[in-house]
């Protein structure tokens, strides 16, 4: 809701600013149609960029939709979409998904993730090893990682989720997830993850940093708190690039659109407002 | 042409052509009233048939497309594995859907065990016991309950029912088949009780009079005479409720835990056909065995609900014969 609000406020502000700009700068000769499909986590960013880009290039039509990360590169391969938004770099193998040959990953944003627990959990800090043990089911009680004597409730995203792929690669360093058990459940979306963690005592899960609320606790990993500052200064490692996958190097309107998203103006403006981290923040 | 042929025809025609027969041919122009009527009639008939054909076409093409994609599963997975293996881990190429098939039936059964007695008692109360003013309030209330979107029930289940179950039973999570069955019970209760209520209301008054005349108590009259007399109507209601329970997705996915393991305990996170499809369909690669297996599961659901509808029809006919 908060995200939606800030999105609409940002959209209105941009509309006001750019309507005056576009009159002056509408000399752009770009035309064409861009179809974007894929990650729902990147959709707010895509929509915001699309509405701004269309103001500058009125002849370009952009249609963006989202289903799930993997549908992005798949649609590109099938030729249904020009850009496939994907939470991971689909031109490389990741746990569970083979690479998509011939596709180029265009980085557009930085997405940090956090391991989150219910507020009743007394533990504040977990090492990578402890996270691996918890998520693979080797450690099943909070007392084994310095908490009180209570069973750990594991909340996982469904296989194929972009957040899951990234969390597995960055926080668990590729270690496997548990997939069964009476204290294990899977949820469908980031929103469901939020509700599950907030309402289930002793639960642990993971979520995009944007979704962390005051009703849950974000874990320190190896002693580093998951904050934007720590991502930028390089101490917090659990983040990933959001990618726009294209078939080969992008050309024409698609290229211009991706360049617009990567431009300093957009990265430091709307992108920051939507709580993503600009690419330039990390050297 | 048309004018001539219909003029030659005897007045006692059949079907649509009969309608214009009694009208005089007027000035004999091509488009007089009689001919217009004939054309309208024919046109309307064609429109009706086309609509009926369209509905059938939609149904059969859905069945066909689900089956066409679903059956590809069996290129890579043997039917024995698909239907009877409990190991569903598509990332490791095992596609055993038994967990979900079993889950669907177990969940439906559990839902009916809780909801049918409750609904029948509510129906009896509405039709036989409640004073008229209360009945006039309760019936619209139940009708309104039918219209509440399932995601609302699911959300309430997730935020109220599950913490409650956790507190009451001391389990760690509360997710599982019991939570899902309770949510579904609340969902199908209005459907089953309202239709049963109608069935009980139409039991002829003479049955009651005869029962009382023989010295039966009210309780005996209701449960020995009226409910059995309304049996086929109640069965109809139960099957409609069952069809709703089997196909329900959003409410179930929020409280069942979505873990592919056999539902051998009331509080173990598990998964059913609908919840598994909706959890995974957005994230599967196109043209993969996984995708096909999900379609096959959808096809199974369709077949199950079609069977239910056939059953409903049978009970309706039986009810009509009585």
Automatic annotation (TrEMBL), chain A:
PBP domain sequence ranges: 26-263
Signal peptide: 1-24
BP-aspect Gene Ontology terms: phosphate ion transport
Location within or outside the cell: Cell membrane
Any single Pfam family the record assigns to this protein: PBP_like_2
Membrane topology, record value: Lipid-anchor
Keywords: Lipoprotein, Palmitate, Phosphate transport, Signal, Transport
Transmembrane regions: none
Keyword Cell wall biogenesis/degradation on entry: no
One of the record's GO cellular component terms: plasma membrane
InterPro entries found in the cross-reference section: PBP_domain, Phosphate_ABC_transporter
Self-association state and partner proteins as the record states: The complex is composed of two ATP-binding proteins (PstB), two transmembrane proteins (PstC and PstA) and a solute-binding protein (PstS).
Described purpose of this protein according to its UniProt entry: Part of the ABC transporter complex PstSACB involved in phosphate import.
Protein name: Phosphate ABC transporter substrate-binding protein
Lineage: Bacteria, Bacillati, Bacillota, Bacilli, Bacillales
From TrEMBL, chain B:
GO biological process: phosphate ion transport
Coiled-coil spans in chain: none
GO MF, one example: phosphate transmembrane transporter activity
Membrane topology: Multi-pass membrane protein
InterPro entries (alphabetical): MetI-like, MetI-like_sf, Phosphate_PstC, Phosphate_Transport_Permease
SUPFAM superfamilies assigned: MetI-like (SSF161098)
Keywords: Cell membrane, Membrane, Phosphate transport, Transmembrane, Transmembrane helix, Transport
Keyword Transmembrane: yes
Regions crossing the membrane: 43-67, 97-129, 141-165, 177-196, 234-256, 293-312
Name of a matching Pfam family: BPD_transp_1
All residue ranges annotated as the ABC transmembrane type-1 domain in the record: 101-312
One Gene Ontology CC term in the entry: plasma membrane
Locations listed in the record: Cell membrane
Main location: membrane
Function: Part of the binding-protein-dependent transport system for phosphate; probably responsible for the translocation of the substrate across the membrane.
Recorded family membership: Belongs to the binding-protein-dependent transport system permease family. CysTW subfamily.
Protein name: Phosphate transport system permease protein
Source species of the chain: Cohnella endophytica
Gene that produces this protein: pstC
